[in-house]
Structure to design on (394 residues):
C-alpha cells in the first residue's frame, strides 16, 4: 500500500460495532496502523488476524515460562504417568466428562488434597494445548507461515500511543473540552492548552485520580531534566499533523486514563502472570492494557466520537482552524452508546442527572484544577504580541 492510498484510507470513515467480540483488537489495529505509517520499515498494515496471532503467541510464551506452583515433573510423559497412577478410574472418568471446565470451576472439594497440584498441572498443560490449536487455526486463516507483527514491536507502538501521544495530544484536547464548558471566557486554543500542559509539567498530579494500583506515572524530574518535559510548539504541530486522524481516540483514552473508568467485573491478567484478576476501578489504564475487554473499548469509541464531533464544530470560524479539522479527522460510525458530557458530580442522592431516553455513557468533563486555569490564563498569543509590537513601533 503506497503513501497516497494510506492517507486516503486514514481519512475515510471508521466503523465499529458495539457487540463485535474483536472490538478492542480492531480499535488497537486502527491506532497501530496510523503509528506505523510514520515508521521507516513498516511495509504493510497490521490486520486483525496478525494482532490475534501476536497475542496468542505471547500468552503461550507466558504459560510455558510460568508452570504451576509446585510442579516437579521433568517431562510431559512423567506428568501423564503421575496423573494416571494417582487417579482412580472414577476420577479419570470425571476429568474426561468435565474436561472443558476451567481450573476455577473444578469441584476441588470432591478430590483429595494431594490431587490439587496434579490437577493444576493438568489444566496448565491443557491450556497450552488449546493455545497451540488456536495459533494453528489463526495461521491457516492468515495465509502465511510467519508472524507479521512481533510482540516487541507491539510494545513499542503501545508505549508511544498510551504514553507520548495520549499524554500530549490527547491531554491537550481533553483540557480544551473541559475549558470550553467551565471557562468560556478564555479563548479556546490548543496552543493555549499546550502552554498550560508545559506550565504544569504534564498535569498528571492535577488530573489523574490517585489509585492504590501501580500506575504508569513517571517520577517528577527536577533541574535540567525538567526542561526536557517541555514540549515545543514546533514539536506539537508536527505530532498533531502526523496523528491528526486519531486525535479523538487519544483524548478519549486520556479521559479514561485520568478516571477510574474500568468495568467492575474482574479481568484476566494477560501481560504479567503475577498480576491477579479483579483489577476493578483504577486510573492510568487504557483499552490496550486488557485486549479482551470489549466494554472499555466501546467506552473509548463513544468518547472518541464525541470529541470528534465537538472538535470540528468549535474553535475558529474558519474550518481549517477549528479544534479539529474535519478534513483530517475521519468520521466515526458506530452503534456504541452516545457519550453525554457530565460537568459536575451530583452532591446529594436526590440530585441526579436526568436520564435520557436512549442509552448513553457519561463523559466526565469536570472543572479544571485552579493551577491549570491559571496556566491557561497566563498564555499570551504570539500573534497578539506581534501586533502590539507593530503598534508600539508606529
Amino acid at each position: 500500500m503506497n503513501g497516497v492510498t494510506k492517507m486516503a484510507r486514514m481519512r475515510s470513515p471508521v466503523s465499529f460495532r458495539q457487540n463485535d467480540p474483536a472490538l478492542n483488537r480492531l480499535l488497537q489495529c486502527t491506532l497501530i496502523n496510523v503509528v506505523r505509517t510514520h515508521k521507516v520499515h513498516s511495509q504493510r498494515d497490521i490486520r486483525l488476524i496478525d494482532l490475534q496471532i501476536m497475542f496468542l503467541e505471547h500468552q503461550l510464551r507466558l504459560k510455558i515460562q510460568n508452570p504451576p506452583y509446585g510442579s516437579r515433573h521433568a517431562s510431559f510423559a512423567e506428568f501423564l504417568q503421575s496423573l494416571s497412577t494417582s487417579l482412580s478410574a472414577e476420577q479419570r472418568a470425571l476429568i474426561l466428562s468435565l474436561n472443558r471446565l476451567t481450573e476455577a470451576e473444578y469441584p476441588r472439594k470432591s478430590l483429595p488434597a494431594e490431587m490439587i497440584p496434579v490437577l493444576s498441572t493438568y489444566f496448565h498443560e491443557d491450556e497450552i494445548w488449546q493455545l497451540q490449536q488456536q495459533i494453528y487455526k489463526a495461521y491457516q486463516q492468515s495465509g502465511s507461515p510467519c508472524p507479521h507483527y512481533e510482540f516487541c514491536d507491539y510494545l513499542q507502538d503501545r508505549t508511544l500511543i498510551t504514553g507520548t501521544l495520549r499524554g500530549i495530544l490527547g491531554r491537550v484536547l481533553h483540557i480544551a473540552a473541559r475549558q470550553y464548558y467551565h471557562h468560556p471566557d478564555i479563548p479556546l486554543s490548543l496552543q493555549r492548552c499546550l502552554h498550560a500542559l508545559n506550565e504544569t509539567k504534564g498535569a498528571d498530579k492535577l488530573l489523574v485520580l490517585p489509585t492504590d494500583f501501580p500506575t504508569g506515572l513517571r517520577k517528577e524530574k527536577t533541574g535540567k531534566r525538567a526542561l526536557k518535559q517541555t514540549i515545543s510548539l514546533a514539536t506539537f504541530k508536527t505530532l498533531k499533523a502526523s496523528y491528526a486522524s486519531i486525535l479523538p481516540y487519544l483524548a478519549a483514552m486520556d479521559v479514561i486514563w485520568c478516571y477510574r473508568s474500568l468495568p467492575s467485573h474482574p479481568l484476566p491478567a494477560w501481560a504479567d502472570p503475577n498480576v491477579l484478576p479483579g483489577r476493578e476501578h483504577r486510573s492510568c489504564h487504557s483499552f490496550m492494557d486488557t485486549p479482551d475487554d470489549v466494554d472499555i473499548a466501546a467506552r473509548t469509541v463513544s468518547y472518541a466520537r464525541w470529541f470528534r464531533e465537538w472538535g470540528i464544530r468549535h474553535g475558529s470560524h474558519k474550518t481549517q482552524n477549528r479544534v479539529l479539522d474535519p478534513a483530517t479527522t475521519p468520521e466515526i460510525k458506530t452503534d456504541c452508546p452516545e457519550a453525554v458530557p457530565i460537568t459536575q458530580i451530583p452532591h446529594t442522592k436526590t440530585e441526579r442527572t436526568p436520564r435520557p431516553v436512549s442509552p448513553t455513557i457519561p463523559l466526565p468533563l469536570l472543572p479544571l484544577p485552579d493551577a491549570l486555569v491559571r496556566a491557561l490564563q497566563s498564555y499570551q498569543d504570539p500573534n497578539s504580541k506581534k501586533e502590539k509590537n507593530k503598534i508600539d513601533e508606529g
Observations:
- Residues 212-218, 223-227, 262-281 have pLDDT under 50 and may be disordered.
- Residues 163-348+356-381 form one domain.
